[in-house]
Amino acid sequence: MVFDRIFGTYTPEDDAVPLRFGLVHPAGTQNSVRIVFHEFGGLLRDVLRARGWRERLGFLFRPPGWQPPTHPG
Q1: Is the distance from CB of 60 to CB of 47 less than 8 angstroms?
Q2: SS3 (DSSP) at 11
Q3: What residues make up the domain containing 39?
Q4: Among residues 64, 21, 18, which one has the least CA distance to residue 43?
Q5: How far apart are CA 17 and CA 40, in angstroms?
Q6: Residues in contact with 68: Cβ distance below 8 Å, sequence separation at least 6, in sequence order
Q7: How do residues 31-70 score in pLDDT, each as one tens digit?
Q8: pTM of the predicted model, to two decimals?
């Protein structure tokens, strides 16, 4: 709850909506080291594909699931 408030992802509980717990992308292994570090691979991939420092910092410090705004092309 503390981190949800920090990152702006907190939503109050609602009895009408069932709660969902767990990882967004399951690790798919029982290896504890891989479970701890599996999300860093996706984060590193996003940072390397970013189109500038603003996007890199966005991936590192914005809420989970953040995507850069689309640029008209």
Answers
A1: yes
A2: coil
A3: 32-67
A4: 64
A5: 30
A6: 50, 51, 54, 55, 58
A7: 989 888 888 888 999 999 999 999 999 999 998 788 898 7
A8: 0.57
Residue 4 counted as domain residue: no
The closest alpha carbon to 46, from 68, 17, 22, 69, belongs to 68
pLDDT at 73: 45
| 44/40 Cα distance (integer angstroms) | 6
State the distance between the two ends of the chain, measured CA to CA, in whole angstroms: 39
- Domain-located, residue 45: yes
Res. 3 pLDDT band, cuts 50 70 90 = confident
